């Protein structure tokens, strides 16, 4: 998934449209459709192409950005699937066994969001060690 905001949103909307109509899906599209199906609270937005592509989610609105949320789920699943950073697959599995996959990912997203925010603020790459330490704390609690 690459591109600017509008291109990324378009990928989500197109995948959802194809998935709802039963069209064949590419692997990335299938992953997006699965995530969207798991988040029925976003269906109304994604069912309305114009609204989905133009919606704004400023932090002060108190609304989370569904595109960011879904992309972070996708990131967590990709990280767990490739075990990158090393150890994340086992963390994902342990949390999923204890909490269920969706709740595990929601908690892991908090750590990913923090790592990305800190990297952006510092103008550096995300700190994998700090990220993994945050994730490991989730397993211990």
Description:
This protein is an all-alpha fold and 141 residues long. The chain has two domains: 1-55, no CATH class; 64-141, no CATH class. It contains eight helices and no strands. The chain has helices at residues 5-21, 27-37, 43-47, 49-54, 66-82, 88-99, 101-122, 128-140. Helix 5 crosses helix 7 and helix 7 (101-122) packs antiparallel against helix 8. The radius of gyration is 16 Å and the shape is globular. The chain starts with a helix and ends with a helix. The mean pLDDT is 95.
Strand and helix map with partners:
Blueprint: H1 5-21, H2 27-37, H3 43-47, H4 49-54, H5 66-82, H6 88-99, H7 101-122, H8 128-140
Helix pairs in contact: 1-2, 5-6, 5-7, 6-7, 6-8, 7-8
Spans of at least 5 consecutive residues with low confidence: none
* Count of domain modules: 2
Tell me, briefly, the overall form: globular
Strand content: under 5%
**Oligomer designation:** single chain
Helix content: over 70%
Q: How large is the radius of gyration?
A: 16 Å
Task: Supply the number of helical segments.
Answer: 8
